[in-house]
Write a structure and sequence with these properties.
By secondary structure, this protein is of the alpha/beta class. The protein has 13 helices and 35 strands.
Length: 651
């Protein structure tokens, strides 16, 4: 059953909260969604390219979303196609926020458009591509392809699914591109194409270890070597599917010299954007090391499985070339620029994107423990099918020909990933429309007979001035206790109140009914903070990050209530009204509720089960053990939403 119901507010279009488990309409049409109003670039070099766009298929996934963002930061218009098979629409919202932040002092900005579609669906893709046709051909100046399945172990279990999507899908897609004369393609390949090249510790693998025709080359020791065209000991269908795609693209470029294809071979991306607002958030259970580590740190899984401790490495665990995802994204931008500027000519070209240095699994675990101060429980198990021991890149060619080098270290990766420990599980969105109405979002607790409660959440709010996020008990406008978090110019304070805050007859403010609390002693409201409201008989109290901020016995609600989470683009006299076209986002990481209802019978005749003085703060989800002990044996209901908000959105 659902504990919360979702509905929209105001006369506008339906609200669009979205979460990893949400089935709520997103507001984006499919398969050919409404395009953002095309916007010109700022000035200068942007004007020469402002009518063209880069198509990114799979552009809301982990690497795809970071690349889409870096393209926008570099001044490219971006068209994203994604079927949301392993990604979320909230990622698109974050990309837009980060784009707007990057161009906050500019008059103009590049556009980003989104279409929900499977890139293998030729009919739907044809309709989408038709929207970007121009008199001289297509407005798509280049394509970056991320729309592949990528889990090694899953590929062993479901090889046909991988060959159908990764190989057959790419053939269908390239046929469409060829028919439209779009022949500049950046292809997401993988270090998996190298297979089990060597067991020699510390070897840096060059692109010459995997070729699509026989070639002689000179290694770093000055020795002549010969690589036969073909694959060498690739250990899983995922790697073979990537090699097959490369071979097909090589054949295509040979058959038609107008094609310029760059295959980028990745080496274990980790980290997140420096803002902390964009990271790795797959729908399926992660197989990559860093998100798996974070699940252990967050308590979502009990331990990290280390697959194999008998590899020929420094400590027996697998060694990888871990590259920061932002460096990887910039590698795609560099490849696109190199093709566009003809520094990389027609034909098929493969490049390694990596750091050239390797770290073992145990070394990464130790680094994360030192960074976070947390003990990460591990379980050593046997080798995983399809894995190899050592994969470390030689990135020399990318540096020379693409003018690309990594800028971030493993410390940047671990620090940015720890910031993702507080990841978003629910986002409410609001926007002021041109007709003056608003798209707003609200979640209503299904119980209407709550008599007192302790309400806690970890949240942040971003966006233009005039929006207000709220978390409150509600019976009517004269029986309400709330926390209100404003955006923009008012974002340096949080508002606590018991309604009404003014006498309804005289409009004179009621002393002790409202409090404005400065954020000077805390992180900005745009960062994660822990908020808490306690409503008990005769008293309301508010907490910030575990410390009490205010309390009052004035106007304490005495009527049975519901509990509401909401985001509005019109805060009235308190925060003002958002401008037309402006947006805001209310991100929630977790919610905890402890409450009683009029249908329950407390064993305490005074009903003071949750006293304001003795109830501890809740700095992390489900941490308030003392409060749970306090109410043990009484007829209370407790709900903790720590790692998912399916309680909030499922029916």
């Amino acid at each position: 059953m659902s504990y919360f119901g979702v509905h929209s507010s105001s006369s506008s279009a339906a609200a669009s909260p979205s979460s990893p488990t949400s089935t709520i309409p997103s507001g984006y049409s499919t398969p050919a969604s409404d395009i953002d109003e095309l916007q010109s670039y700022d000035s200068g070099i942007y004007n020469a390219r402002r009518s063209q766009s880069v198509l990114v298929v799979g552009g809301l996934g982990y690497i795809g979303s970071h690349t889409s963002l870096e393209l926008l930061r570099a001044g490219y218009n971006v068209v994203i196609v994604d079927n949301l098979d392993n990604s979320y629409l909230t990622t698109l919202d974050r990309i837009k926020v980060l784009r707007d932040d990057h161009y906050r002092n500019a008059l103009l900005r590049p556009s980003v458009a989104f279409h929900e579609a499977d890139y293998r669906d030729n009919r739907t893709m044809s309709v989408i591509m038709e929207r970007y046709s121009a008199r001289s051909g297509s407005a798509i100046e280049g394509v970056i392809h991320f729309a592949a399945h990528k889990a090694v172990s899953e590929s062993i279990q479901q090889p046909l699914r991988y060959y159908a999507n990764n190989v057959a899908g790419m053939v269908t897609f390239c046929s469409l591109l060829e028919s439209l004369n779009i022949k500049k393609l950046i292809f997401s390949s993988s270090a998996a194409v190298y297979g089990e090249v060597t067991t020699e510790t510390g070897l840096r693998i060059s692109e010459n270890h995997c070729l699509h025709e026989t070639r002689e080359w000179i290694d770093v020791a000055g020795d002549k070597r010969v690589t036969q065209g073909g694959c060498t000991a690739i250990s899983n269908p995922y790697g073979r599917s990537k090699w097959m795609c490369e071979a097909i693209l090589n054949d295509l470029a040979i058959s038609d010299p107008e094609w310029s294809v760059v295959a980028l071979r990745y080496f274990n991306p980790i980290g997140c954007d420096a803002s902390g607002k964009l990271g790795e958030d797959p729908r399926t259970a992660p197989s990559n090391l860093m998100p798996s580590l974070l699940r252990v740190m967050n308590g979502q899984t009990p331990h990290l499985k280390i697959f194999g401790t008998d590899w020929d490495t420094r400590d027996g665990t697998a060694m990888r070339d871990f590259i920061h995802v932002s460096d990887l994204a910039l590698g795609h931008v560099a490849a696109l620029k190199a093709v566009g500027e003809a520094r990389v000519g027609p034909g098929f070209h493969a490049y390694n994107l990596g750091t050239g240095d390797g770290n073992s699994v145990k070394e990464i675990v130790s680094a994360m423990q030192a960074c976070s101060g947390k003990v990460i429980e591990t379980q050593e198990v046997g080798r995983r099918a399809g894995d190899v021991g050592v994969v470390v890149a030689d990135p020399t060619r990318a540096a020379a020909e693409l003018d690309w080098r990594t800028a971030k270290s493993i410390d940047d990766c671990k620090n940015s990933d720890v910031s993702q420990e507080h990841s978003t599980y629910l986002t409410l969105h609001t926007k002021r429309l041109s007709d003056g109405s608003q798209v707003a979002a609200e979640l209503d607790f299904a119980e209407f007979n709550v008599t007192y409660a302790s309400i806690r959440m970890s949240a942040r709010i971003n966006g233009a001035s005039g929006a207000v996020a709220a978390f409150f008990t509600y019976h009517d406008d004269t029986n309400e206790s709330d926390i209100e978090i404003p955006t923009g110019v008012k974002a340096d304070e949080v508002h606590y109140s018991n309604q009404p805050t003014a006498d309804p007859d005289t409009d004179v403010p009621i002393d002790g009914a409202t409090f404005n609390v400065s954020m000077e002693a805390h992180k900005p409201t745009s960062d994660w903070n822990n908020y808490r409201l306690d409503w008990v008989p005769g008293k309301s109290a508010w907490y910030m990050n575990g410390a009490q901020s205010a309390d009052t016995e004035v106007n304490v609600p005495d009527a049975e209530s519901m509990i509401i989470l909401s985001l509005w683009s019109n805060g009235g006299t308190f925060s003002g009204r958002m401008g037309t076209g402006q947006e805001a986002w209310f991100d929630i990481q977790w919610v905890e509720l402890l409450f009683n209802t009029s249908a329950s019978t407390s064993t305490d005749p005074d009903g003071t089960v949750c006293s304001v003085e003795s109830s501890p703060g809740s700095p992390v989800p489900n941490a308030s053990r003392g409060l749970q002990d306090l109410v043990a044996g009484r007829i209370w209901w407790a709900i903790g939403l720590a790692s998912a908000v399916s309680f909030l959105v499922f029916v």
